[in-house]
Amino acid sequence: MMLEIWLQVIVLSCGVFFTANGAFVGVNIGTDISNAPSAADIVAILRTLKITHVRLFDADAHLLSALSNTGIEVMVSVTNEEVLGIGELPSTAAAWINKNIVAYVPSTNITAISVGSEVLTSLPHAAPILVPAMNNLYKALLASNLNDRVKVSTPHAMDVISHSFPPSTATFNTTANSTIIQILQFLKNTKSFFMLNAYPYYEYENSNGIFPLEYALFQPLPPVKQIVDPNTLFHYNSMFDALVDAAYNAIAALNFSGIPITVTETGWPSLGGPKEHDATPVNAETFNSNLIRRISNDSGPPSQLSIPINTYIYELFNEDKRPGPITEKNWGLLYTNGTAVYDLGLSDSDSNSSQVFCVARPGADAGSLRSGLDWACGPGQANCDVIQQGQLCFVPDTLQNHASYAYNDYYQKKRTSGGSCDFGGSAVITSVDPSYGSCRFTGSLNFRAGAPFPSPALGPAAASSTSSRNAVLHFGALVAAVITLLHVNLRSIFVA
């Protein structure tokens, strides 16, 4: 579970990724990862960091339960495999809504459903069933009086748009127009939003040197390299803004307006193969740091300045089990063991700090506590003298108390070099001072915003606990996948 590493790695200053009334930055978590934390640990991270939104790539029951009564906004997803059945039968959609939405609201704050993943471009033969699936889900929400609370939409790749530059001339691919029109009408009727997966990295790589790297990374451009739309004379300071504006113009070309765009995926890989020279940690850190700064100014692209761009970074973890090129495994902010791929420190000012402690997890079994205590006092080199008989922290003479002291002593000594607070899942981070009487636990300050992330130096190994990998954490105080489908042809139905 390694909750302590996660907390070390992602603690940054409050407010860097969040504006109370404006745009937010989220982060995706792919499913092809090893040793993901448990649902309880994910929620502990969210609550510790005051994260206000979460997006899941499916409707994971463990996470939905763990998120109950947190107030965190949750976007769940219908997987590509589920789209067919939901599109064919309203009863299947109703069952999905009852199982994954009705069963959890209002205690779990579910606010949106993402239907499929880039269906129109990656699985075009399945396009005819997409809108019926969205309609059936909406009607099931309507029957449960949840249609205003929970919005339905579907993510699109940039490939659905022809010639994204200049943005003013962008249009949707003619082969997808008929389905796109149905989707836009659905979004308009239900007051939902358009989901766009916009990757400047791919656009830059495929531009054959036409666009400078600085443009893709939100970096300032010299006067001779300014990017201007020749039709509108809008200046584009970043490729990200140009891509979003291209989508807005493509929507307008079909005579639709008033449909906001949320960028459901964007990011930059930190490692690539021999021909992927720009996939580096420096570029990834630069892109994501500048992206967060860009979104936090609460403005839209040049053609829609008054509409902020809610955005999810792809992704929180490197997907070490993901097939394909090296870049496919290296989009994450974190490695799968929880350590940082690069320093995403963004704040220029100090944040308020608080003490944190590593203690025995309540309810941990005696065997795990004994193993953890023995490791901490032995190879871990914790100071266990004070929990010996007659010493300050011997009483209460319980395994829980002694393990807590030893765990914390090891953690405080080793955390700056990456020491963890796992101990086979028998330890947990807390901000509550466990000191009592004359027994004082050494505490340490949380990492400040912008502080370097530690390298791993893990405690005793143990079998990994049940993990919940199909999650997307949408960051409020902090900071944000693809499957298969099949062929079917049904007549589309609009929401009345």
User: Low-confidence parts lasting 5 or more residues at pLDDT below 50?
Assistant: 8-20, 346-354, 444-496
Rounded to the nearest angstrom, the radius of gyration is 24 Å
Strand content: 5-15%
Q: Mind summarizing the main beta sheet?
A: 5 strands, parallel
Structural category is alpha/beta
Question: If helices are DSSP runs of H or I spanning 4 or more residues, what is the number of helices?
Answer: 14
Q: How would you describe the shape?
A: globular
Summary tags:
5-stranded parallel sheet, globular, alpha/beta
What is the compact description of this entry?
The protein is built from 14 helices and 17 strands.
What does this structure look like?
With 496 residues, the protein is an alpha/beta fold. The protein has 14 helices and 17 strands. Helix 4 (80-88) packs across helix 5 (90-102), helix 5 crosses helix 7 and helix 7 packs parallel to helix 8 (177-190). The longest helix is centred in the first third of the chain and has 17 residues, at 127-143. The chain is globular and about 80 Å long. The two termini are 47 Å apart. Mean pLDDT is 80; it is low at 8-20, 346-354 and 444-496.
Topology:
Layout lengths: L2 H8 L14 E4 L10 H10 L4 E3 L5 H6 L6 E6 L1 H9 L1 H13 L6 E7 L3 H4 L4 H17 L7 E3 L1 E3 L3 E2 L8 E2 L4 H14 L3 E4 L2 H6 L7 H4 L10 E2 L6 E2 L2 H15 L7 E6 L14 H15 L15 E4 L40 E6 L5 H12 L21 H16 L12 E4 L13 E2 L26 E3 L22
Parallel strand pairs: 1-13, 2-3, 3-4, 4-5, 6-9, 9-12, 12-13
Antiparallel strand pairs: 2-17, 7-8, 10-11, 14-15, 14-16
Helix pairs in contact: 4-5, 4-7, 5-7, 7-8, 13-14
